[in-house]
Amino acid sequence: SDSQFPVPVKPDEFDWSEHFPVFFPATEPEDNAKDLKVRFADIGCGFGGLIVKLALLFPEKLMVGMELRDKVTEYVKERILALREQYKGQYENITVLRTNAMKYLPNYFEKGQLEKMFFLFPDPHFKEKNHRRRIISTALLAEYAYVMAIGGILYTITDVQELGEWMKSTLDSHPLFEPLTADELEKDVCVELLSTATEEGQKVERNQGTTYRAIYRRIVAPKDP
Ligand code: SAM
């Protein structure tokens, strides 16, 4: 249950320094220019394939994988430590947290903090009565919008057609998100990784399964000041 992991009461009570020891503290003068806030979150990161890929693509960005399962989280922790050991100076910008991301995001991130959020192959919760447990929902999108920066990008992908259509229509009908254009999708280096970087994505690729993407930008609401 959730009581098995500690949850910060609010974002500034969470100590990220132990997760990113090379980035904290900023002792050198030029280090003060470093962005010490987590900007990317991979929600339900599983075995961590995405953040491992993103680490080298965006070496200056701090990013976190959030995962509910304890053993899987431990695996990702070990994976990151091993990579840091093997490739000195690299993979220092990624970490993993065991948490329930559907409940506690605002405990970890302040308003407007996240530039990218990823939801790769989330659990489908097929039954109608379980749809409220889906990780993309109108209520949760309001929370994601809160922790995201204006202009930030929310990425989703699934191999379950019904879920793909659900995520797309839920995002389409939300006033705080708009879809990226084909041109923007083409230019975004993260898009290709959605289907290739994670363990689940690779499984779907091996089985030549079809995938459904929905990729949206956090926009200013018409009524926002
Ligand atoms: N994104 C990974 C990938 O593409 O390989 C994992 C996909 S797996 C099908 C879904 C993951 O989401 C599982 O590891 C599950 O434990 C995690 N998960 C489900 N609900 C969650 C929640 N509320 N908070 C954090 N992680 C969650």
TrEMBL record:
Keywords: Membrane, Methyltransferase, Nucleus, RNA-binding, S-adenosyl-L-methionine, Transferase, Transmembrane, Transmembrane helix, tRNA processing, tRNA-binding
Binding site for S-adenosyl-L-methionine: G44, E67, L68, N100, A101, L120, T198, E199, E200
Keyword RNA-binding found: yes
Keyword S-adenosyl-L-methionine carried by entry: yes
Domain of life, per lineage: Eukaryota
Catalysed reactions, as listed in the record: guanosine(46) in tRNA + S-adenosyl-L-methionine = N(7)-methylguanosine(46) in tRNA + S-adenosyl-L-homocysteine
Xref: PROSITE patterns: SAM_MT_TRMB
Subcellular location: Nucleus
Active site positions: D123
SUPFAM superfamilies: S-adenosyl-L-methionine-dependent methyltransferases
Primary location recorded for the protein, binned into one broad class: nucleus
Known pathway: tRNA modification; N(7)-methylguanine-tRNA biosynthesis
Alphabetical list of PANTHER family matching this protein: 3-DEOXY-D-MANNO-OCTULOSONIC-ACID TRANSFERASE/TRNA GUANINE-N 7 - -METHYLTRANSFERASE, TRNA (GUANINE-N(7)-)-METHYLTRANSFERASE
Entry function: Catalyzes the formation of N(7)-methylguanine at position 46 (m7G46) in tRNA.
Family note: Belongs to the class I-like SAM-binding methyltransferase superfamily. TrmB family.
NCBIfam families: tRNA (guanosine(46)-N7)-methyltransferase TrmB
Name used for this protein in its record: tRNA (guanine-N(7)-)-methyltransferase
